[in-house]
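SEQUENCE-TO-STRUCTURE ENTRY
===========================

Subject: a protein chain together with a token-level encoding of how that chain folds.

Sequence line: the amino acid chain in single-letter code, read from start to end.

Question of interest: how does this chain fold, as expressed in backbone structure tokens?
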Amino acid sequence: MAAQGVKACVGMEASDYTNPEEYPTEIHDYLATFEQCLGSVEEMLKAMMLVSRSDLQKLEPLEQAKLDLVSVYTLNSLFWVYLTIQGVNPKEHPVKQELERVRTYMNRVKEIAEKKKASKLDKGAASRFVRNALWEPSPENEKKNKGPGKGKKRKMD
């Protein structure tokens, strides 16, 4: 579906790749890789289109945001490729700013997800840990240490 649309934009079908008279032979490997990638994109798009919107509503808000951002980024990336194929410099097109904006939101969602995963401090457990980790002298140790000679004194000659 999407791959066919991109192939139509390029003006070549898969069968055209086998005819070396249509293009320079140096780019054959690049075209073959490009065709494989288009097939992968088409498969993923088909899988995404099969999922109903009501199923997507069942996702948690963070997961919905991730899915929406990936979808928008993918579409803008495909448009970037389309512009490149048409000979337009995508770096001078508004799609570049859109990709940067989406990337910014992706980073924000990533930070939120990391904060959510970060362990929370249990103040009660921390105070018990510190209290038990500190040495407390027992009453009999205190009597030994309070005497006049805490240690051996050395005679000075």
User: Anything to note?
Assistant: Confidence is low (pLDDT under 50) at residues 1-11. DSSP finds seven helices and no strands in the chain. The radius of gyration is 33 Å. Helices lie at 2-10, 28-50, 53-57, 61-85, 94-117, 123-133, 139-146.
